[in-house]
Amino acid sequence: MSATPAAVNQMPREHYLNATWGIRSWLLTTDHKRIALLYLASVTFFFFIGGAFATMIRIHLLSPKGLLVTPETYNKLFTMHGVAMIFFFLIPSIPAVLGNFLLPIMIGAKDLAFPKINLLSWYIYLVGGCFVLYSFSTGGLDTGWTFYTPLSSVYSNSAVTPAVLGVFINGFSSILTGLNFIVTVHTMRAPGMTWFRLPLFVWAQYATSIIFILGTPVIAITLLLAGLERVFHLGFFNPALGGDPILFQHLFWFYSHPAVYIMILPAMGVISEIIPTFARKPIFGYSFIAGSSIAIAVIGFFVWAHHMFVTGESTYAALTFSLLSYLVAIPSAVKVFNWTSTLYKGSISYDTPMLYALGFIGLFLIGGLTGLFLACLGLDIHLHDTYFVIAHFHYIMVGGAVMGYVGGLHYWWPKITGKLYPEFLARIAAITLFLGFNLTFFPQFILGYLGMPRRYASYPPEFQVLNVMSTAGASILALGYLLPMIYLTWSMRYGAIAGPNPWPGTGLEWRTPSPPPTENFDVTPEVTWEPYDYDNRPDLGLDVSGAPALAHGDD
Amino acid sequence: MSEQHSEQHHIASPTLYLTIFAALMICTFLTVVAAKIDLNQYFSGLNIIVALTIAVFKASLVVLFFMHAKYSPKRTQLVIIASVFWLAIMLFMTMSDYVSRSWT
Amino acid sequence: MHRTGELYEQYRTLEQQRETASLGMWIFLSTEVLFFAGLFMTYTLNRSTYPDIFSEASKTIKLSWGAINTVVLIGSSLTMAMAVWASQTGKKKALTWFLIATLVLGTVFLGIKSVEYHDKYVEHHIPGWNFQFEPGADAATNAHAQLFFSLYFGMTGLHALHMIIGAGLLLWLIRESLRGRFTPEYNTPVENIGLYWHFVDIVWIFLFPLLYLIDRH
């Protein structure tokens, strides 16, 4: 652990956690920090639901004929895994937990612009979640998380209607969060907090919110139409009644491709905070990282039909969408180059958040580059709907988004709870996660390339070795998730007291006690420094004399 | 905040509102008349082009004057432009697939 | 609770509070645009696929009701704009009356809409419910006409739902304005609900030509 400026750290006497007591003070709170913790509890719950389905899938695939369930049930397992994980864990995880907690503090505001709407969006999330759980427990859902029509609107015998309704309702939770964030960043910044002094995490949240407000309404109306079609036997997407199923896919991916960036952009924001802190260097190319977040959010809306190369869409459209998809690689690469440049000649310490950040860079690189394979028209014909795709998006979503989320949770845990987690155990967990993840998903690239299709309950015997490896990896991965779960909870009570700035970080959130007071700051802060400026921050108590601050020393 | 000075209350006059209302009524009349004439015989699809042009014009009047977008801060105008732009992305990119399917 | 023009604790100034509310409303409306966009997209594709049947089906809805409703709704936008003006200039009595006028016109619109819906019910033009386009129409024609009416009811229904919510908001505004809450310094709710009302008007400005005015020659 790095040197902390204060000799003895003390918990503040009053903070947001003990300001008021009782269940009502939590369920009716408008404090963004408490709402963040409500979200933390609920997304963790859905993470376990989704995780349980994943576990069953991996156990089932231990043997070529399938060990556990019938093919029909298998369809339900992967569908419910996807729906729980994507709509109820990945999409809200970083924005609604870390974003909610940090965004107002990072810009020096007392709260989000609309605190009541913030609480409302949590309740909407819960209502949506209840509908989905109802669907899971009464017949399940077997359409695939994509709800493709006419399977979802006509033929499926599972509980599609409540699930569609649940995801529809949950959309409004995202929309309200995004609206709140954008307005907050525009109007609630503290004096001196100019746009180019915003932490990169805030830029990432802002970019994510653009997708929330412009993309999410489209999935809402699309699922509403599919639901109406199912209930009233209408024909929007049903070819038997003159409708067009490809239209559903266009509308679905108009949101759901940008939704991938809803998951990865906030994680990129987390990484952009962690890297300079543990390299003790100003981030390299601040404005490029900020700009690339916005670029990813915008370009992300121009690429959706690359999910539909094998549907019979026009060759010319496919060409266009393929080319545009390659464009996303540019801002993504800009980020990776900037992070690695920040590391160059930094005085790096391998604290737990840094391990997650470094893991993120590697895994995101693999996930991103294999995305280029899939954007390639010819190659996609071979790889479409195989385990290659599964491996690719798990590298982005689990290797990227979840690593970012868990890393961020560690990084800001001292701020959220005021306590430190056990560092050694945390490093072990981070390494376990990284190894378990790779063992789970790397074999799937090979499986996919060899031709194993996704969504099948059985496979030819020659694929068994790789599948067993994947399942073995999944059990290590599960351990990697359980460990932080246990020691983070443990640390809330028994952890060492963290003090306001344990790492130390440069942002406003580290200038207020841990845990922060309800109104975030005792006096409204005034920002007079540039972001990540480790070279000019004597207040952090760092020994700058020995630090290699000159980037171009001997090249 | 830098945007503050630009957003002083602009109070439009009732005369302006009445003028806009009159213009909207005239446009409504024109669009009904245009629909009753077979313009497609001169140029295929001219009917719908005329109808939508009038609708866009009417909507612009409402946004600019009734909703005060003309006097709003730049970021409000940006929000308006963004929503129209994203609507256009959806319509044009999706239709580009359907239109170009028959090309060889 | 929040009293007239009082500052919420998360803001520093009243001006900031007002700007924030206005930006929030505009962003909400931009999500509404994309919400309706899915329907407009579905409409665009289906009309380009089945131009003739859409034209036939469109002719079965009464142009006169649609035209009258357009006038009524634009009229309500005018009274709403005048209400905002009255609140900005401190004319409290006029404000109440303009709000009432807006509500009345909105209700007239919904009344006419329900007459139209009833006509469609009588003609068996309600999708998914004994739908029969014309006596003796073949299955394909029937299905394609049903697409038109699904969109007709989907689009006008969603629009009407927004009108009903708007009417509820107007009722609240009227109550508050009778209590004299709105002043030239504090009229954010009037302005923002006004924005919402105008937005609903704009949706109708597009629905009218798209649904009622297909090849009326």
Would you kindly provide a written description of the structure presented here, covering whatever features stand out?
The complex is a heterotrimer of chains A (555), B (104) and C (217). Chain A has 555 residues and is mainly alpha-helical. Chain A has a single domain (23-540), classed as Cytochrome C Oxidase, Chain A. Helix content of chain A is 65%, strand content 0%. By secondary structure, chain B is an all-alpha fold. Chain B is flat, with a radius of gyration of 19 Å. By secondary structure, chain C is mainly alpha-helical. Chain C has a single domain, classed as Up-down Bundle (Four Helix Bundle (Hemerythrin (Met), subunit A)). The longest helix of chain C is centred in the last third of the chain and has 40 residues, at 139-178. Chain C is elongated and about 65 Å long. The model of chain C has no long low-confidence stretch (mean pLDDT 92). Chains in contact: A-B, A-C, B-C.
Care to give the gist of this entry?
The complex is a heterotrimer of chains A (555), B (104) and C (217). Chain A has 555 residues and is mainly α.
Largest interface: pair, residues per side: B-C, 52 and 49 residues
How confident overall, as mean pLDDT of chain A? Answer: 93
Output the radius of gyration of chain B. Answer: 19 Å
How many structural domains in the coordinates of chain A?
1
Give the oligomeric state. Answer: heterotrimer
Poorly predicted sequence stretches spanning 5 or more consecutive residues of chain A: 1-7, 545-555
Q: In percent, how much strand structure appears in the residues of chain B?
A: under 5%
The CATH class assignment of chain A is: Mainly Alpha
Query: How does the helix and strand content of chain B classify structurally?
Result: mainly alpha
The best one-word shape of chain B is flat
Which outline of chain A best applies?
globular
Helicity range of the residues of chain B? Answer: 55-70%
Provide the domain count of chain B.
2
Query: Using DSSP, what is the number of strands of chain A?
Result: 0
Total helical elements of chain B: 3
What's the end-to-end separation of chain B, in Å?
A: 56 Å
CATH superfamily of chain A: Cytochrome c oxidase-like, subunit I domain
